[in-house]
Amino acid sequence: MLIDHMPLRIASGVLAATTIESVRQSTSYHACGWQILDRWAFNSPEQLRALEAQGELLLLGRLLEQQMLEHEALILPLGLAQRRQGLADHEVLALRGNSTEL
């Protein structure tokens, strides 16, 4: 999984400044959502731009959905146990059948 100490740095190079500002200012998104957006920007920049072109609200809704899905999978007892056993977040998500791609 992509780890970056400057949240949204990668996404800032792909998305409009207004979109990035919306994500930063919203209380709906937290570090998990920021990592997801950076991952999408790194792995699928063209797809992410295309989604943004369809509407910021559509992009933000998709991001919120993915954030909730990943956060839930990683904090449920099984996910926590797997992480304690040394599995990376993306491995836990894959075992649960959750895609990390856009």
Account of the 3D structure:
By secondary structure, the chain is mainly alpha-helical. It has one domain (9-95). The protein has seven helices and no strands. It has helices at 9-12, 17-25, 31-43, 45-53, 56-75, 77-84, 89-95. Helix 3 packs across helix 4, helix 3 (31-43) crosses helix 5 and helix 4 (45-53) packs across helix 5. The chain is elongated. The chain starts with 8 loop residues before the first helix and ends in a 7-residue tail after the last helix.
Short structural description:
The protein has helices at 9-12, 17-25, 31-43, 45-53, 56-75, 77-84, 89-95. With 102 residues, it is mostly helical.
Tell me, briefly, the overall form. Answer: elongated
Number of strands: 0
Could you tell me the radius of gyration in angstroms? 14 Å
Structural class: mainly alpha
- Please bin the fraction of helical residues: 55-70%
Q: Biggest β-sheet: count, sense, barrel?
A: none
**What's the SSE pattern?**
HHHHHHH
